[in-house]
C-alpha cells in the first residue's frame, strides 16, 4: 500500500473528524485502541493508565471520550502470572512476592528463560547465585540458555505442568512434609486439596508429563530437605488450558512446603511508595467493553476490553461493532492466533490508525500511518530496577537527537489527538511539562530531577516501605486492618478462591487435561508432534527487530526446532525447508535439528509475518497454525504451548 504524505495537523484533524462522526452515529463504544509492547515507555505507561483501583493496564486514550474499549497485549501476556493467579490466591499482584535468589540454596526456573528477559535482571541474579554455589533446576520442554548452565534440566510434556505440581503435592502430603498448621489455620480449601491430589499417583503423573517417578521423588525431596528454595516462572505456565490455575497451584506448593516469606524462598516485599501522578481519567461504565460477557474478571480487573473477542465484535457486531481502531506500538497480525481471522476483522473496520516506527503488517490495512520517534529522539523519564525486579530508581530521559524526518514522540501524538477531541487538558502538550506533571508530587523539583539525572538514576528505595521479618501473615503486616492473614476475601491463603467462585469460575486450582495433546486420538494420527511456540530468541523481541541487519546475522530465518529422532523419521536435516502443519493450516520454516528439544515436541519461532521483515521471516507466521478458540477459561489466553502438528520436508 502506498501512503500519501500529509502534515501532522491534517492527519490529526482528519482522525478527530472521523472519531466524532462515528461517535455521533454509533456511540463512543465503537472507538477502540490497542497498545502493545512498543508503548511500554514510561511516560505512556504513567499518563495513559486510568486512575482506578485494581490492576488497570495502560491504555486510556479514548476513555474521556466515553469508550470502554481499551485493549492491550495483556489480552495474551503476563496478566495470568502477574495478576490473576496471585490476586486470587493471596490477594495482591505478583510484584509483592519475589524470589530471594541471593539467599537461595536451590532455584527452580519453571517455564521461563531469564536469559531472554527484558531487562536481564533475573539472569544477572541467577548468574551471581550460580557462582555462589546455588543449584539451578530448570523445568522446560526446551533446553534453554539457563538450562545449559543449570545443575539439572527436567524436560516435561508441554501443558502438563499442573499435573506435575499436583504430583509433587501428593508426595508431600504422603510423606508428611506439608505445613499442616499453615494449611489448617491460614488456608481456604486445604482439606479439599489434600483429597484432590490423591489421584496424582506417580505412575499417572509420569504418563501425563513424561517426568519419571524417580525425578518426581527427587523434586519432592528437594522441597522437603532444603529450607532456602525459590522459583522463577512465567509464560510457559500461562499458555496452557489451565494456565491461571497452574500458577496458583505452584504458589500453593511453595506455601505449603514452608518456603513462603522466609529467607531464600518467595519473600513478600513492597515496592517503594512512589507518588507518580496520573491524569484524572476514569474508566467509563455506561457500556460494557468487548469481552465483558465472556471474561468479566479480566475486564473488571484490568479496566480493558479483551482483544481475543475483537473479531467477534467487528465481524458479527456482537455485542456491538467496533468501527475505529488505533494500534499503538503493536503488530497484531503477527502475534495473535489465527492470523486470517484477525486480518479479516481489521480489514472490516471503518477506519484504522497505526502509530509505529515501522510499516508492519497491521499498517498495510491502515487509513492513517503516524510515524513515531525512537527513544533517542524524545525527552521523558525512565524507570530502573535494582537487583530485584521492584522499581527502585527513575531518571530523566535526555533527548539525544532531534526527531528524524516527520516522526513524533508517541506521547505527543496521543496528547495532541486528545486536544482535538476536547480533553487535551488531561495531557500536557510538551515533553517537559509531561515529566513535570508525572513527578509533581515528589520531594524534588523538575529542575533538580533533570540536573541530578546527569549523574545517573535517582534512587526511590525506602527501607521503611517493606515490613521486616518473616511470615508476615502472622503479624498482620499483609493486611490493612493489621489482622493476621492475607488480603483476600476470606483473610486466608485461598487455595479455593472466593473471587473466582464469585465470577463463576472453578475456584479450585484443578488440572485441566491438554485439549489438543497426545491423548487426542482424533488428531494425533495425522498430527503426532506437539507444537509449542512463543520462546524468545536473542535477535528479536516478539515480532520486533526482524528488519535490523545486525540482529538478523544472529538468526536470518524463522526456525522449527526438532529432535534428532523425529527428524530422522522424516528425513529432515538442519537447514532444510520444512512445512509445519496443524489442523488449521501450514507454514514454511527452516529446520534446526537439536537435542535441546524434547523428543516429540517442536518449538516453532514466532514473530514472523510482517512485510518489512527479512525474507527468511516474512512468510513464516506461526499464527496461521495457532488456535484462537483454544483458551484458558479464566484469562482467555490462547494455548500457544500445547497444540498438535506435523512437520514434513519440502
Number of strands: 22
Secondary structure tally, helices: 23
C-alpha Rg (nearest Å): 25 Å
Percent helix:
25-40%
Mean pLDDT: 94
SSE-based structural type = alpha/beta
Number of domains: 3
The order of strands across the largest sheet is 17-21-18-20-19-22
Percent range for β-strand residues: 15-25%
How would you describe the shape?
A: globular
At CATH's second level, what is the architecture of the largest domain?
3-Layer(aba) Sandwich
Low-confidence stretches: none
> What's the level 1 CATH class of the largest domain?
Alpha Beta
| Quaternary state of the chains | single chain
3D structure, described in words:
The protein has 3 domains: 8-78 and 275-459, 3-Layer(aba) Sandwich (Rossmann fold), CATH 3.40.50.740; 80-270 and 471-502, Dimethylsulfoxide Reductase, domain 2 (3-Layer(aba) Sandwich), CATH 3.40.228; 521-649, Barwin-like endoglucanases (Beta Barrel), CATH 2.40.40.20. Strand 4, helix 4 and strand 5 (135-139) form a beta-alpha-beta unit. The strands form 6 sheets. It has a 6-stranded mixed beta barrel. A 5-stranded parallel β-sheet has the order 2-1-10-11-12, with helices on one face. The mean pLDDT is 94. The chain has 650 residues and is an alpha/beta fold.
Amino acid at each position: 500500500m502506498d501512503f500519501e504524505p500529509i502534515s501532522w495537523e491534517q492527519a490529526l484533524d482528519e482522525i478527530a473528524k472521523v472519531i466524532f462522526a462515528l461517535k455521533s452515529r454509533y456511540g463512543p463504544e465503537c472507538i477502540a485502541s490497542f497498545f502493545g509492547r512498543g508503548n511500554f515507555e514510561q511516560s505512556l505507561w504513567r499518563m495513559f493508565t486510568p486512575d482506578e483501583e485494581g490492576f488497570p493496564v495502560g491504555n486510556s486514550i479514548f476513555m474521556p471520550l466515553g469508550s470502554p474499549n481499551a485493549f492491550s497485549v495483556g489480552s495474551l501476556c503476563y496478566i495470568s502470572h502477574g495478576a490473576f493467579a496471585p490476586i486470587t490466591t493471596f490477594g495482591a499482584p505478583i510484584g509483592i512476592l519475589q524470589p530471594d535468589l541471593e539467599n537461595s540454596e536451590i532455584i527452580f526456573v519453571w517455564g521461563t528463560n531469564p536469559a531472554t528477559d527484558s531487562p536481564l535482571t533475573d539472569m544477572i541474579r541467577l548468574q551471581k547465585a550460580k557462582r555462589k554455589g546455588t543449584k539451578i533446576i530448570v523445568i522446560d520442554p526446551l533446553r534453554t540458555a539457563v538450562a545449559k548452565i543449570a545443575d539439572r534440566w527436567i524436560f516435561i510434556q508441554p501443558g502438563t505442568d499442573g499435573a506435575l505440581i499436583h504430583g509433587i503435592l501428593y508426595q508431600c502430603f504422603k510423606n508428611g512434609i506439608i505445613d499442616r498448621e499453615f494449611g489448617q489455620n491460614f488456608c481456604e480449601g486445604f482439606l479439599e486439596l489434600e483429597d484432590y491430589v490423591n489421584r496424582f499417583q506417580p505412575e499417572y503423573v509420569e504418563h501425563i508429563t513424561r517426568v519419571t517417578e524417580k525425578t518426581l521423588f527427587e523434586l519432592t525431596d528437594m522441597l522437603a530437605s532444603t529450607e532456602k528454595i525459590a522459583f522463577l516462572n512465567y509464560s510457559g505456565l500461562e499458555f496452557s488450558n489451565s494456565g491461571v490455575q497452574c500458577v496458583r497451584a505452584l504458589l500453593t506448593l511453595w506455601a505449603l512446603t514452608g518456603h513462603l516469606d522466609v529467607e531464600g524462598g518467595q519473600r513478600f516485599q513492597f515496592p517503594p511508595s512512589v507518588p507518580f501522578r496520573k491524569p484524572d481519567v476514569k474508566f467509563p461504565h455506561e457500556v460494557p467493553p468487548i469481552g465483558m460477557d465472556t471474561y468479566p474478571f479480566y475486564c473488571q480487573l484490568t479496566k480493558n476490553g479483551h482483544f481475543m473477542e475483537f473479531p467477534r465484535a467487528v465481524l458479527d457486531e456482537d455485542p456491538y461493532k467496533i468501527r475505529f481502531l488505533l494500534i499503538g506500538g503493536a503488530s497484531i497480525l503477527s502475534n495473535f492466533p489465527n492470523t486470517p481471522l484477525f486480518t479479516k476483522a481489521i480489514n472490516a473496520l471503518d477506519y484504522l490508525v497505526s502509530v509505529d516506527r515501522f510499516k508492519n503488517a497491521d499498517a498495510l490495512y491502515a487509513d492513517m500511518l503516524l510515524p513515531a520517534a525512537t527513544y533517542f529522539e524524545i525527552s521523558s523519564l525512565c524507570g530502573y530496577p535494582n537487583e530485584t525486579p521492584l522499581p527502585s530508581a527513575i531518571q530523566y530521559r535526555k533527548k539525544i537527537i532531534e526527531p528524524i524526518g516527520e516522526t513524533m514522540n508517541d506521547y505527543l501524538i496521543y496528547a495532541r489527538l486528545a486536544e482535538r477531541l476536547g480533553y487535551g487538558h488531561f495531557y500536557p502538550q510538551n515533553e517537559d511539562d509531561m515529566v513535570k506533571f508525572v513527578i509533581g508530587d515528589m520531594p524534588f523539583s523538575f529542575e533538580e530531577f533533570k540536573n541530578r539525572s546527569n549523574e545517573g538514576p535517582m534512587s526511590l528505595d525506602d527501607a521503611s516501605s517493606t515490613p521486616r521479618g518473616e511470615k508476615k501473615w502472622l503479624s498482620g503486616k499483609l493486611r490493612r486492618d493489621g489482622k493476621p492473614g492475607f488480603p483476600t476475601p476470606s483473610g486466608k491463603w485461598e487455595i479455593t478462591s472466593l473471587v473466582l467462585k464469585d465470577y463463576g469460575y472453578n475456584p479450585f486450582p484443578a488440572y485441566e487435561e491438554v485439549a489438543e495433546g497426545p491423548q487426542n486420538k482424533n488428531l494425533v494420527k495425522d498430527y503426532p508432534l506437539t507444537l509449542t511456540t512463543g520462546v524468545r530468541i536473542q535477535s528479536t523481541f516478539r515480532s520486533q527487530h526482524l528488519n535490523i541487519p545486525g540482529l538478523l546475522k544472529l538468526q536470518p530465518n524463522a526456525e522449527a526446532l526438532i529432535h534428532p529422532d523425529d527428524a530422522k523419521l522424516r528425513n529432515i536435516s538442519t537447514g532444510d525447508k520444512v512445512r509445519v502443519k496443524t489442523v488449521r493450516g501450514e507454514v514454511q520454516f527452516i529446520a534446526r535439528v537439536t537435542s535441546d528439544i524434547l523428543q516429540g515436541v517442536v518449538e516453532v519461532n514466532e514473530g514472523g509475518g510482517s512485510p518489512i521483515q527479512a525474507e527468511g521471516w516474512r512468510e513464516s507466521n506461526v499464527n496461521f497454525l495457532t488456535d484462537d478458540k483454544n483458551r484458558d477459561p479464566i484469562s482467555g489466553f490462547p494455548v500457544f504451548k500445547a497444540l498438535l502438528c506435523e512437520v514434513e520436508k519440502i
